[in-house]
Amino acid sequence: MAEYQTIGARGVSGARSAQIDEGLRAHMNKVYALMSGALLMTFALAYLVASSPALQQVLLVSPVVWVVIFGPLAFVMIASFAFHKLSVVALNGLFWAYAALTGVSLATIFIMFDMMQVITGLAYTAVAFLGLSLTGYLTKRNLGPVHQVAVMMTWGLVAFALISMLFGGMGGNTFWWMNVAILGLFAVLTATSTQEIKNTYLEARTHGGPEADLFLEKAAIIGALQLYISFIAMFRSIMYLFMGGDD
């Protein structure tokens, strides 16, 4: 990926550089706006389901719960592996469907904890997320290798969690350490994903052809999804680790 500070050295004029800088701000604003909208919908749905025993019976007890559990994982894999084949409309549909299913699954948080604990957990998560994302955006260091390692470790955790779920669940200590690992990994991914989103834009604008606009429309959705996943994962772990809930 191209680094922003190398654009001038590659012969991009001052006017062109300013245009890229303005476009980058607009691109990042779009990413954060998509992520924020998805979070609002997610928490609204979580509250709605937690407030309705009838919805809980349908969505969290019946066989539909397996769609709630595995649906988001399926959506992420489809979006990742079929990125170039999917249209902007299809990617948007997957993104909002993912946020909706996550909202249903997050209802368990609203059931387990009182509203003040949820608000406190959200505040902690928001402060941590903003600091980590800003660090990833501003740092001059290449976080790409760290990002790759964190992604591989995250998939390893997903595999471990699925195996544990299928074979009887996790004990208290394992659950606690799992959440520590999740919190640490997604803290790292928040910073590295932000840098990746930024560098993807700069690379496309500096070296991309006529199809760059379409590519960046899709990239904004995927970037919002990456940051959304990190926020939700950090929020869940903060709630389980620090808000006094039972396993």
UniProtKB/TrEMBL annotation:
<feature type="transmembrane region" description="Helical">
    <location>
        <begin position="175"/>
        <end position="194"/>
    </location>
</feature>
<keyword id="KW-0472">Membrane</keyword>
<feature type="transmembrane region" description="Helical">
    <location>
        <begin position="215"/>
        <end position="242"/>
    </location>
</feature>
<dbReference type="Pfam" id="PF01027">
    <property type="entry name" value="Bax1-I"/>
</dbReference>
<feature type="transmembrane region" description="Helical">
    <location>
        <begin position="95"/>
        <end position="113"/>
    </location>
</feature>
<feature type="transmembrane region" description="Helical">
    <location>
        <begin position="150"/>
        <end position="169"/>
    </location>
</feature>
<keyword id="KW-0812">Transmembrane</keyword>
<feature type="transmembrane region" description="Helical">
    <location>
        <begin position="119"/>
        <end position="138"/>
    </location>
</feature>
<keyword id="KW-1133">Transmembrane helix</keyword>
<dbReference type="GO" id="GO:0016020">
    <property type="term" value="C:membrane"/>
</dbReference>
<feature type="transmembrane region" description="Helical">
    <location>
        <begin position="31"/>
        <end position="52"/>
    </location>
</feature>
<comment type="similarity">
    <text>Belongs to the BI1 family.</text>
</comment>
<dbReference type="InterPro" id="IPR006214">
    <property type="entry name" value="Bax_inhibitor_1-related"/>
</dbReference>
<feature type="transmembrane region" description="Helical">
    <location>
        <begin position="64"/>
        <end position="83"/>
    </location>
</feature>
<protein>
    <recommendedName>
        <fullName>Integral membrane protein</fullName>
    </recommendedName>
</protein>
